[in-house]
Structures
1.
Amino acid sequence: MNLHEYQGKDVFRAGGIPVPPGEVARTVEEAETFAARLGFPVVIKAQVLIGGRGKAGGVKVVKNGQEFTREAGRILGMDIRGHAVRKILITPAMEIEKEFYAGIVLDRKYETPLLMVSPAGGVDIEDVARQTPEKILRLHLDGRGLPVYRARAAARFLDPRPKVQKQLANVISRLADIYYSQDCSLAEINPLVVTPSGEVWALDAKVVIDDNALDRHADLADMRDLGAEDPGEVEARERGLSYVRLDGSIGCVVNGAGLAMATMDLIQFHGGKPANFLDIGGSSNPDKVTAAMNILTRDQRVRAVLFNIFGGITRCDDVARGLLAALDRIGTKLPIVIRLTGTNEKEARELLSARGMTALSDMDEAVRSVIARAAEAA
Ligand code: GDP
Ligand code: MN
């Protein structure tokens, strides 16, 4: 689960990281009262669940009331890469001398958390990693946390001044404590700044909590903002589907994670791009198929849909029934390619052919066919 910046900052504050005060507004009027209370200059920041808001124009330092009203209205009307801005954070503008990066992320390859710090903060860390990798210090952590001496080493990498290093080491230690105690898969501060008077402040917060740990964190689970999340992901979670949004145009409905991955691979192999990974699981529940179709037909990027079902515990006829029920309800014009094989395959084919649909049994053929249909529809 991704937290908004203001929520992440609350978590940071509670964990002892210095964060400037701030208030969240949903309307310009509400925002104006907060700004009046804080005094100018202030920063207006779009609260959406994606990064790169600065580059998109969703972060703005303003110096007076007139400019504030204009910019607050503009940002509240923005759409940042498909995310409508419904909330803005109003926070005092800090004077910045230097911008650093500090983040802890789960490194899946090494199966440990990875601390990364960089004196080149304020920009995408991915860009720094590509262009000037020597400007990133990486420290793999173990299950027990971050020893103080390593936090100090990280701080020395960022700034030569002992007084600043002390504050940075403190922030990095606290960030690690938060990462472990809140079951994060990411806890990131970018930028972590030093002011001209030598004070250290966290000006941004990106926190991702491991969904599987939310039972342990009722306070964090309550922060979930359904309205700001991808509607497909919200529906999939509610219906018990495993769904991952990808960049392509081919919607996939598959049973079982292994088959899902094989399907993604085969689509890529034949030059197509999957729009998602959607696993209806090993059950025989037509409602799940209907939910899957709902998610895919709402997604504007999807040009064609592939059903790839290997019947075992999942019965092919149940999937066919779910698909037909979904089509009755939503009546999509999207091309649908069906490949099924295994349990109750014969019954499934009969159900489909009664409605003028045919199912393939060869996976390779089905994948090539859906790529062609998506290309025609593009
Ligand atoms: P992001 O682009 O979504 O990561 O949003 P950030 O919160 O990181 O803001 C983007 C940039 O805006 C930062 O790197 C800073 O340069 C600038 N910024 C954010 N807060 C302040 C502030 O309080 N004062 C000043 N002067 N600049 C700020
Ligand atoms: Mn940032």
2.
Amino acid sequence: MYRFSSVYLNPKGSPIRALYKHLSEPGMISFAGGYPDPQLFDVEGLGAASERAFANSKACLEYGATEGTPRLKEAIVQLMHERDVHTTPENIIVTTGSQQAFDLVLRVLVEKGDSVFVEQPTYSTNIQAVQAHQAQVSAVPVTAEGMDVQALERMLASASAQGEIPKLLYTIPNFSNPSGATLTVERRIRLLQLAVQYQFVLVEDDPYGGLRFSGDAVPSLMALASQVPGAQDWVVHMSSLSKIVAPGLRVGWAVAPVEILKRCSVAKQSADVGSSPWVQGIAAEYLASGRLNTHLGHICAAYGAKCRALAHGLRQELGDAISFHEPSGGMFVWARLTGDISAAELLTHAIARGVMFVPGEGFQADGVDRFTLRLSFATPSLEEVAQGCRRLGEALTAARAARSPQALVA
Ligand code: PMP
């Protein structure tokens, strides 16, 4: 009846949203969503920022500039400066979450059939975003030290031999969703050199960089681009207030070369005219209040404790049935079941015991590894983390029992 576009004929949707219905089950402990802990929101600071923003009610209630209000753009310049990225308001577009920034970048750069490289595993929604633009997606493997840049080099050499150099490479270099991995400085530099050599746009998605709870900060690709001749022309940096302040604001941004940015601004006009000036006012007031750094100290300590509790609980309850690297920031542990029980099989038994996680297949462009899973430690309390791990241990025992010959006979 309806003649849907081929892209939305049978859309897959997010693997996380598919689990939503179980979230409201009584006593459910969720390691599934990448949601900040609502107990940690700076409600007082945001409430006060909101009141100050609305004092300028006429500006809040009117349409604003498509690329963002000057005040918020200035505040973002300042925030980026603190992160060693020296930029100007002309190089910034404010977006409705960093999710929109990626959509705009894809709109202005990617056409049907173009080659786009992503990491494997990577953020599931952005695999879908690339697929929605009908690009050819190629997956670059990730190790504990982030993207395997040597594998990338090989892929680029062979793509170049076939005249199919990617237009764009999408990476989450800090505490990646879902892998938790952080790209080393050496690999970052090499990646920048490759972007210059092969002339592809390097899209750096960095919503989690502010959430480091151990080890030393690593400069962003955009900060390092000034050290690699020509690289500044090839990096687009996206970030967001979602994970460090509150996702309900829906405030994100991109820092990019002007040639790319001015086209993103035209694309944004037809997407939403502009992000809410009211909410941008709240974000600008909040950033100007100087509360962010104290708040970050507070939430990083809390997430660090939860991450350690999860790592401890997994080791204690699942032992060598699971392998993973403990991240130094962010919200996610990426794990692999070492036996023959798949993540989906474990999930069925886990949900029955009141605990949830996301099977890893949705985070893989080619969806081949059925034994991986993503666990987020951000939302549950410390007690819930420990309890959730006990339930996971029980779920594994149940999954094994359901497989055993006796169970089959009985
Ligand atoms: N990129 C990554 C890697 C994410 O994990 C998320 C949120 N889960 C986003 C982008 C989108 O974030 P937002 O639109 O809220 O800024």
